[in-house]
């Protein structure tokens, strides 16, 4: 742990006192150098907390507001204006480069720049600088420390189903990879009324959790000779939709192969920005589709409140995925998520 200093807030920036922050696979990807964040830097991008200060521009947020802090977007480009901020034309600049638009950093240490702005926040700390654009106000009665994962992994899995695949009641779906993203897809599939929900993972405990959260069938690839055959045994005509929450080429191929014609696979798993995969064109020619999805193609300002409402109605019990760690144990949490022994570690602060 290290002390950093924050300079004056600019534009619509806000200073947030962090209550809790989830650890996401994307944080691990950056930690291992697969994403181009300059060093030194602070990671963390699934924050929840309390606004303690606002910048000079007028804002709908005020000190004392409870917020969930999601990814940053410009809110002005064609994609943002059409309701798709996850595909913002400035997404990389605003979320990956570690600096403001003018090249300055939000943090310094002993006078030297420290790169922040990771997903518009860098929230692995007691405080983070975000903006009014990527902070979603939530009701003060909600369990604030637990809400951070809604900002990325939970909205990614749920959004891929509800915003992109959009299954009809009675449809079938297969979800490959049952981490927090995949299990969010399972919960969303149940919300959408899918009657056949097939969860695939090599982790027996995650298969058990998937069954509790709505999966009608679970498959362990280590226990079957052919995953595709196993899925087709559960859904003989193929599935209407599939979700790849792993990102390995072999898994993407399986997720496309299990589709009926027509059918759509949404691939979400991140294995770094350069990740070649091979698809049998014959599968696509038969009316199957493969689409990539970032952040569930969601607008956090509207989708996070939708997920909160589903949670309040008992239809999106994401607390089942959360394990909390004090800030002093952040290295333990990082090790546990890398080892796959927890689903969604959340670092909490006093």
From TrEMBL:
GO terms for molecular function: aryl-alcohol dehydrogenase (NAD+) activity; S-(hydroxymethyl)glutathione dehydrogenase [NAD(P)+] activity; zinc ion binding. The keyword Zinc applies. CDD domains: benzyl_alcohol_DH. PANTHER family: ALCOHOL DEHYDROGENASE (PTHR43880), ALCOHOL DEHYDROGENASE CLASS-3 (PTHR43880:SF12). The keyword Cell wall biogenesis/degradation does not apply. GO terms for biological process: formaldehyde catabolic process. Its EC number is 1.1.1.90. Belongs to the zinc-containing alcohol dehydrogenase family. It comes from the Bacteria. This is Aryl-alcohol dehydrogenase AdhB. Keywords: Metal-binding, NAD, Oxidoreductase, Zinc. Pfam families: ADH_N, ADH_zinc_N. The gene is xylB_2.
